Amino acid sequence: MSEKNTSIHEFDFKLICEYFSGLKRQGPGSPEVTIKALSFIDNLTSESHIVDIGCGTGGQTEVIAYHAPGHIMGIDLFPVFIELFNSNADKLHLQDRINGIVGSMDSLPFQYEKLDLIWSEGAIYNVGFEHGLNEWRMFLKTGGYVAVSEASWFTEERPVEIDEYWKDAYPEIDTIPNKVAQMQKAGYILIAAFVLPENCWTEHFYNPQVSAQKNFLKKYTGNKTAEEFIAHERREAELYYQYKEFYGYVFYIGKKI
Ligand code: SAH
After folding, report:
1. Whether the model pTM is above 0.85
2. Residue 68 lies in a domain
């Protein structure tokens, strides 16, 4: 990559981080869904070690802290998100319960067999569902849990337009039975799988972006990269409204055997 390209890439990266930093969540989800997923996990105590991988600015981490005992470490690749994560934790007086670190989900800095729960909402796709489940398993104690949300097809067949869009964006998107089989093959017992309700995409994810997009475009008037990025986000939302009966996010909760 030439130096010129590198700097363009860094600019994109900064812009995208800035855009998502202003939002409560960086992916579809809701406090109700985080609480529901937590309700399937029964091994936690105040001594438990929980990690939230791809935690973003920590919207869901705070919910876990309010509804489960134990210490939670958030980990995310982007330092800007982790700064916000830790300052939000301070504001909520949760700094003794949760702390965020910068790191990558493909080389986690944990000891083997030490974790009671690995949490990851809307983020495992960055390394791939199957790969992530296989690799992360070694960090869990036997009997420990993994709880991840992941884009999934609801039907065996779907319109070509949405099929092609997702095959380009995330070729590993698959049907729920296939995802469940991958979880089992990776060495977990399936404890629960449930579809996230539509309001996780609309009320909690796309709606807050409408005004964020307007402000962003005002700030970056004439900036082609910013305009293209917002156009991309808007297209993604439009496709969701058009094809939501064919796909969505599913929470998969497994127990290490
Ligand atoms: N869990 C949050 C954020 C989901 S968006 C929520 O549900 O709101 C996906 C997150 O994964 C982003 O915060 C992104 O910075 C992070 N991410 C992307 N690649 C990563 C990697 N290799 N390691 C750790 N985090 C990563």
Report:
1. yes
2. yes
Please indicate, yes or no, if residue 16 is contained in any of the structural domains. no
Cα(131) to ligand 1 centroid in Å equals 16
Taking CA atoms only, the protein residue closest to ligand 1 atom 10 is 54
What is the per-residue pLDDT across 43-91, written as a single tens digit (0 to 9) for each?
A: 899 999 999 999 999 999 999 999 999 999 999 999 999 999 999 999 9
Range of the domain at 185: 27-197+246-256
Residue 54 sits in a domain of what CATH number?
3.40.50.150
Read off the tokens for 218: 């005002």
* Pocket residues: Cβ below 6 A from ligand 1: 25-27, 29, 54-56, 59-60, 76-78, 81, 104-106, 121-123, 126
Distance CA 251, CA 249 (A): 7
Centre of ligand 1 to C-alpha 243, Å, is 24
**Does residue 79 belong to any structural domain of this protein?**
yes
- Annotate 70-91 with b (16+ C-beta within 10 A) or e (fewer): bbbbbbbebebbbebbbebbee
